[in-house]
Specification:
The protein is built from 3 helices and 10 strands; from the N terminus they run βαβαβαβββββββ. By secondary structure, it is of the alpha+beta class. It has one domain: Protein of unknown function DUF952 (ADP-ribosylation fold).
Length: 112
């Protein structure tokens, strides 16, 4: 199962350079890296990145993250994937730009 993380461009660039990341400031404050499933993704983008256009969407295979990935109740009682360790660049299956269109973010075909 693929899970997804949205990065701001500078966060993504720093991740690629370092080879690993503890996530965005909100992730570090919460003690885990926030991910979303495909059905959760549009709401996550609208809620946390509403006016941001220079974003990068990354896909990760959940099974590759091992026991450090926990499924925990969050928004509306839904289970969200949370990673309790750094994410390594070699765990990213793909990355794609996530532009902002007139009616919201434009997701890569086949993601939602």
């Amino acid at each position: 199962m693929l899970i997804f993380k949205i990065f701001r461009r500078p966060e993504w660039d720093a991740f690629r350079t370092a080879g690993c990341t503890d996530g965005a400031p909100v992730d570090r404050a919460d003690g885990f890296i926030h991910f979303s499933t495909a059905p959760q993704l549009a709401t996550t983008a609208a809620r946390h990145f509403a006016d941001e256009s220079d974003l990068v969407l990354v896909a990760v295979e959940a099974d590759r993250l091992g026991a450090a990935l926990k499924w925990e109740e969050s928004r509306g009682g839904a289970l969200f994937p949370h990673l309790y360790r750094a994410l390594r660049i070699d765990e990213v299956l793909w990355d794609k730009s996530l532009p902002l269109g007139a009616t919201g973010h434009i997701f890569p075909q086949g993601v939602l």
